[in-house]
Predict the 3D structure of the following.
Amino acid sequence: MNKVVVITGGNSGIGEACAWKFAREQCTVIVCGRNHSRNMWVCECINRAGGRAYPYSVDLRNSAELSEFFRQLTLDHSPVSCLVNSIGIDGRSFTMTEDYPEEDFEDVMSTNVRAPWQSMKAVLPSMREAGGGTIVNIASLAGLNASVTGGSVYTASKHALVGMTRAVAKEYAPYGVRANAVCPGFVATPLAEHVLGSKFDAVCAAQPMGRVCEAKEVAELVYWLSSEAASFVTGVAVPIDGGFRA
């Protein structure tokens, strides 16, 4: 798969694992996010290993920055063939809904919903004109079920992301563009460890397979959905949870 792949939030966790997977498959990988030094570090590591990765520092929640990023991207590289939206936060508060701060609501929604929407909006015209492309949005099991107590806003954001994915899939299927969502359960990432805190080990033990998912396992699914092997798969939200929902 010799393609240009944009990975938002590609400097840590699932996004970083996806960057490594696509690079190993001979793709040109664009790692973008707000943390400039982390973007640089991930790309340097991939390039030293023989891959092709380029860092772009951008706040994807900022419309002007995002527009400039994609404008510059088209000048620097071939058209984007694949977009992986891995950008996401849990929010600073996991409190009861009645106590949830309004500023945290805005932060979660702008990061988990607006940023992926704006990224899709930016790449869809060129994908449509090229006659195809793939989008994979990293959602969550919270996009399929209610999240833990105190997670109403996070749950709402991931439901919105799954819904947008399905709508885009139907809208752009006639143009050869496929859009899918991946819905991981608990994954061994800094975000999950932050949310779970001291409960992390107990959560691992409670999983049907006795452990949580590794980020590289999610990356394998993301890559498959982006490949020709999944050429007739679009509009789905695929759980990857080791049997948790079963």
